[in-house]
Design a protein that fits this description.
Blueprint: E1 16-20, H1 27-34, E2 46-47, E3 50-51, H2 57-64, E4 67-70, H3 82-92, H4 97-110, H5 126-138, E5 144-148, H6 156-173, E6 176-181, H7 184-190, E7 193-198, E8 201-207, H8 208-213, H9 218-223, E9 235-243, H10 251-258, E10 264-273, E11 276-286, H11 293-301, E12 305-308
Parallel strand pairs: 1-6, 1-7, 4-5, 5-6
Antiparallel strand pairs: 2-3, 7-8, 9-11, 9-12, 10-11
Helix pairs in contact: 3-4, 3-5, 4-5, 5-6
InterPro entries: AAA+_ATPase, ABC_transporter-like_ATP-bd, ABC_transporter-like_CS, ACT-like_dom_sf, MetN_ABC_transporter-like, NIL_domain, P-loop_NTPase
Keywords: Amino-acid transport, ATP-binding, Cell membrane, Membrane, Nucleotide-binding, Translocase, Transport
Organism: Actinoplanes ianthinogenes
Length: 310
C-alpha cells in the first residue's frame, strides 16, 4: 500500500499550512517525509532551497536542525525538568552551556512557562506539556515548524490557547508552520493555506481564500456547513460565498434593493479564518433560476462564488 501518492506540496515562507484528513489518510507519513524521518521512494523534498533527499549522515542531521517538530503526545523526557527538556535540544546541537541557559530562559518566557522551569512533566497540565514541546522545537531557531496533531489530545479551551501561541509565533518570528490535523477548527483558526488529504493524495489544496471561492470546494463546505433546506417551493435556493472585504459588505441588502426582491436568508455566517474574513449564506430568491439570472450575475460580479442549490 502506498501511504503518500504523488503529493505536490509547496509551503510559502512565513505561511501556516494545514493538511486536513482522517486517520490513515497519509498525513503523518507526509510530515515525516518533510524532515526525512521517512525517506520517500520517489520524488524530492526541499526545505529552504536545500534538497534533503540528496543528504545523508551528518549533513542530513545538520539540515534537520532547521526543522522543528511538535508531537501529539508531547514526547517529553520524564526524568528532566521543563528547563532540562528544552535544553536537551540544544545539547544535541552542541550549544555551549552558558548559551543554553540563556536560550532556555528566553524560550520559556516566549511560551509563558518561566515559573515552571523546575517542574517535571508529571506536574504539568496537557497544555503546559505542549508548550514545553513547542519551546523545545524552537530551541535551535528553526525556519520551519512541523506540527503532528499537536492539539488533538487537548480540551477545547487548551486547544485555543495553543493555537493562539502558534499564530503569535508565526507572526512574531516569521515562522513557517506545516501542521497536520483532523480538526476543522485548527484550519479555521490559524491556517492561511490548506489541503484535504485522502488515501495518500491531495483532494484539493490552495490558500483558504482561494478554496472558499472554488466551486464545489470540500473545504468551503466543511468550514461553513449550512444547516438549511436546499429546496423551497417557488424559490431559487443559492449558496453564496465571499471573502475579504466583501464578507462585511451589505451585498444581500444591495441585492434586495437593486432587484426589488424579497431575499430570505436560510442560514449562514461571517467568520474570521486566520487573517481572512469570509462569509457563506444560503439564500432563497422568489422565482426560478431563469427569473433570477440577473440577480445571480450581480452576486458573481461582486466577487461571490454562487452555486444554485435548487
Amino acid at each position: 500500500m502506498t501511504a503518500v501518492d504523488g503529493v505536490d506540496l509547496t509551503v510559502g515562507d512565513g505561511e501556516v499550512y494545514g493538511v486536513l484528513g482522517r486517520s490513515g489518510a497519509g498525513k503523518s507519513t507526509l510530515l515525516r517525509c518533510v524532515n526525512m524521518l521517512e525517506r520517500p521512494d520517489a520524488g524530492t523534498v526541499a526545505v529552504n532551497g536545500t534538497e534533503l533527499t540528496t543528504l545523508r549522515g551528518r549533513d542530513l542531521r545538520l539540515a534537520r536542525h532547521r526543522i522543528g517538530m511538535i508531537h501529539q503526545h508531547f514526547a517529553l523526557l520524564s526524568a528532566r525538568t521543563v528547563a532540562g527538556n528544552v535544553a536537551f535540544a540544544l545539547e544535541v546541537t552542541g550549544t555551549p552551556r552558558a548559551e543554553r541557559r540563556s536560550r532556555v530562559a528566553e524560550l520559556l518566557d516566549l511560551v509563558g512557562l518561566t515559573d515552571r522551569a523546575d517542574a517535571y512533566p508529571a506536574q504539568l497540565s496537557g497544555g503546559q506539556k505542549q508548550r514545553v514541546g513547542i519551546a523545545r522545537a524552537l530551541a535551535a531557531r528553526p525556519d520551519v515548524l512541523l506540527s503532528d496533531e499537536a492539539t488533538s489530545a487537548l480540551d477545547p479551551e487548551t486547544t485555543e490557547s495553543i493555537l493562539r501561541l502558534l499564530l503569535d509565533l508565526n507572526r512574531r518570528l516569521g515562522l513557517t508552520i506545516l501542521l497536520i490535523t483532523h480538526e476543522m477548527t485548527v484550519v479555521k483558526r490559524i491556517c492561511t493555506s490548506a489541503a484535504i488529504m485522502r488515501d495518500g493524495r491531495f483532494v484539493e489544496s490552495g490558500t483558504v481564500a482561494e478554496l472558499l471561492q472554488r466551486p464545489g470546494s470540500e473545504l468551503a463546505r466543511d468550514l461553513f456547513p449550512l444547516d438549511a433546506p436546499a429546496e423551497l417551493p417557488g424559490a431559487t435556493v443559492v449558496d453564496v460565498t465571499v471573502s475579504g472585504a466583501d464578507a462585511d459588505a451589505p451585498i444581500i441588502a444591495e441585492l434586495a434593493r437593486r432587484f426589488d426582491t424579497d431575499v430570505r436568508i436560510l442560514g449562514g455566517s461571517v467568520e474570521t479564518l486566520a487573517a481572512t474574513r469570509a462569509g457563506r449564506w444560503r439564500l432563497a430568491l422568489p422565482g426560478d433560476a431563469e427569473a433570477n439570472a440577473e440577480a445571480l450575475e450581480f452576486l458573481r460580479g461582486r466577487g461571490a462564488e454562487v452555486g444554485v442549490a435548487s
